[in-house]
Design brief:
6-stranded antiparallel β-sheet, single chain, YdhG-like domain-containing protein, alpha+beta, two-stranded antiparallel sheet, 122 residues, 29% strand, 8 strands
């Protein structure tokens, strides 16, 4: 599958959770998802807790998945194929795509949404 297909696959997985997520930014360089509930920022409020971003690059598509940072212990048992795409704490880099990987990403994102709902973040 080419990179545009990977990007649209990731977008479909995350869009399936709108609401409770919402799209904060969407242009050619990034698609960013956050919670619909306002997040406190200093003395004001921000547009919602950050959840994930999809960023296309020339040779890969990146998924920045913040629940890996905030609830890392809950994601220690992700599949080996998904773990191979993880670079750093919360950045997944996808160059290939298959049904197994798609299933694993759906499960991971669904778990992240449930964790954020339970923590009252989204």
């Amino acid at each position: 599958m080419e990179l545009a297909g990977i990007q649209s696959g990731l977008q479909a997985i995350l869009k399936a959770h709108v609401p409770p997520l919402r799209i904060r930014m969407h242009d050619a360089s990034v698609m960013e998802f956050c919670g619909a509930k306002a997040a406190l920022k200093g003395e004001g409020s921000a547009g919602g807790y950050y959840f994930a971003s999809i960023v296309p690059k020339s040779k890969e598509v990146r998924l920045y998945f913040f629940p890996m940072d905030t609830h890392g212990q809950e994601f220690q048992r992700i599949s080996a194929s998904l773990r191979n795409c993880l670079k750093g704490k919360s950045c997944f880099r996808f160059k290939k795509w298959d049904a197994k990987l798609e299933k694993d990403i759906k499960a991971m994102v669904g778990k992240g949404v449930k964790l954020y709902q339970k923590a009252n973040l989204i």
